[in-house]
Specification:
The protein is an alpha/beta fold. The protein has three domains: 5-68; 96-280, Rossmann fold; 299-412, no CATH class. It is built from 16 helices and 18 strands. The strands form three sheets. It has a nine-stranded mixed beta sheet. The protein has a seven-stranded mixed beta sheet with strand order 13-14-12-15-18-17-16. Strands 5-6 form a two-stranded antiparallel sheet. A hairpin with a 2-residue loop joins strand 17 (393-400) and strand 18. The N and C termini lie far apart (70 Å). The chain binds S-adenosylmethionine (SAM). S-adenosylmethionine binds at residues 92-94, 115-116, 118-122, 136-139, 142, 164-166, 182, 184, 199-200.
Length: 414
């Protein structure tokens, strides 16, 4: 049977795009891209393309996207002939650090299905441990690009499918050890946080996942509320909060249908690609624990952003024998210096009055932290005319027993 007109058009555009990938991967084109990485992009566009069969716009996309992923994806950046989609498609890719982390969660030699494959960063790392990975991607061009890059990067156990991951599951009787979903957090051009607004809609299709895998891993936005997840997801074995240099990057929900919702939370804070701190606790146990209060002692402690996200504050204070300076500030204190504390450690110097601020920090810069003070750091900086360029000097603006106080302390680095 002859393909209809729509199919014919689709086939032509896919073939055209395959040709475009071939042209972009030619050695002289790749050399040109590398030579012009630091060139001003507007000037480059104005000069026009030196190649008859490639537009300058296509070259500019390669340059801009390659630069965008330089730090996040060094393997791709350093490999010859990798092809990139436009920048927008790279916004939500995992970083190599978080993708590598996730690959250690899946079992060795397992069969993995990724129904939202994207640029394929997670699958590249899954493929190092899994027996076989299936990468499904809805966007035709992104699907072709990832497939091409897997070859360039020497991966042979990723099977690429261009299509809708939900339809793929609905039409299949296959089961997998793991299904992975990193949904698109852009819907109709807007950024979304909730699972029901992400693409695909995970909540609506939850039953389908249960029918096709033993375990499910869902990546959600750092802004996604943990209590919401505990309510709307079933079979939670554990939640992992992944931070890089104290910034929450991903929240991972590990689902095992045999489990009754456990509120186990593990927090990983990566300092480098293979150096991290780990802290864990359980939300049900957390509410059974208490924290004592104290005025600032010799040392002050500010938990990392992953612990802030987890809300495991009582678990933290019990583990490290810390006291809280106030119910609402999440600043802890102790007379002991706890080097392995997951967060910032400060040496307490003194309590400062507002009238002394200017005099004390007139010439030197100081870092500001505002916790429950009722003013943002920017407002504080303006009001007291403070310079914020200090290295170890910190002022913590907070409240103790509803009274505003300013704690002057020095950060201790490990
Ligand atoms: C956040 S990205 C995935 C990034 C990927 N994990 C990585 O690290 O490179 C989400 C991707 O899911 C794709 N997508 C959304 N809904 C889909 C569906 N129903 N089936 C297949 N892919 C889908 C989007 O086109 C987008 O490329």
């Amino acid at each position: 049977m002859l393909p209809n007109l729509v199919e014919l058009h689709y086939m032509n555009s896919i073939d055209d795009f395959k040709e475009k990938i071939k042209r972009l991967s030619r050695k002289e084109v790749q050399d040109f891209i590398i030579e012009n990485l630091n060139e001003d992009i507007t000037r480059l566009i104005l000069k026009g393309s030196p190649f008859e069969d490639i537009s300058i716009k296509d070259i500019a996309i390669q340059i801009e996207s390659k630069l965008k992923i330089k730090k996040k994806l060094p393997t791709w950046f350093n490999a010859d002939s990798v092809i990139y989609p436009p920048k927008l498609n790279l916004e939500q890719t995992s970083s190599e650090i978080t993708a590598n982390h996730k690959s250690k969660i899946i079992d060795k030699n397992s069969k993995v299905l990724d129904i939202t494959g994207g640029f394929g960063v997670d699958d590249f790392y899954f493929s190092k441990r899994a027996k076989q990975v299936t990468h499904i991607e809805l966007n035709d061009e992104l699907s072709l690009i990832s497939k091409y890059n897997f070859e360039i990067l020497g991966v042979s156990n990723i099977f690429s499918v261009n299509g809708n991951g939900i339809d793929y599951l609905k039409n299949s009787t296959k089961t997998y050890d793991w299904i992975y979903i990193d949904p698109s957090r852009r819907n109709e051009g807007k950024k979304v946080i909730q699972l029901e607004n992400s693409l695909p809609n995970i909540i609506e299709n939850y039953k389908i996942f249960e029918e096709h895998c033993r375990q499910l891993m869902i990546k959600t936005s750092p802004m996604y509320d943990l209590n919401m997840g505990f309510k709307e997801l079933k079979g939670i074995r554990e939640v992992q909060i992944i931070c890089i240099k104290n910034e929450v990057k991903e929240i991972l929900w590990l689902i095992d249908w045999r489990e009754f919702n456990y509120k186990n939370i593990k927090i990983y804070n990566y300092k480098t690609s293979n150096q991290f701190s780990k802290f864990e606790g359980n939300k049900n146990e957390e509410i059974q624990l208490n924290t004592e209060f104290s005025l600032p002692l010799k040392y002050l402690y500010e938990p990392n952003s992953g612990i802030m996200k987890s809300g495991l504050f009582n678990t933290l204070s019990v583990k490290y024998n810390l006291k809280k300076i106030d119910l609402n500030s999440n600043i802890f204190t102790s007379n002991e210096k706890i080097d392995e504390f997951p967060g910032k450690i400060f040496k307490f110097i003194q309590i400062i009055k507002t009238k002394d601020l200017k005099k004390k920090f007139k010439s030197s810069g100081v870092n500001l932290i505002s916790r429950n003070y009722g003013m943002a750091t920017l407002e504080i900086q303006k009001k007291y005319k403070l310079k914020t360029s200090g290295k170890i000097e910190y002022l913590i603006f907070t409240k103790i027993n509803k009274t505003r106080i300013i704690i002057y302390c020095q950060r201790l680095f490990d």
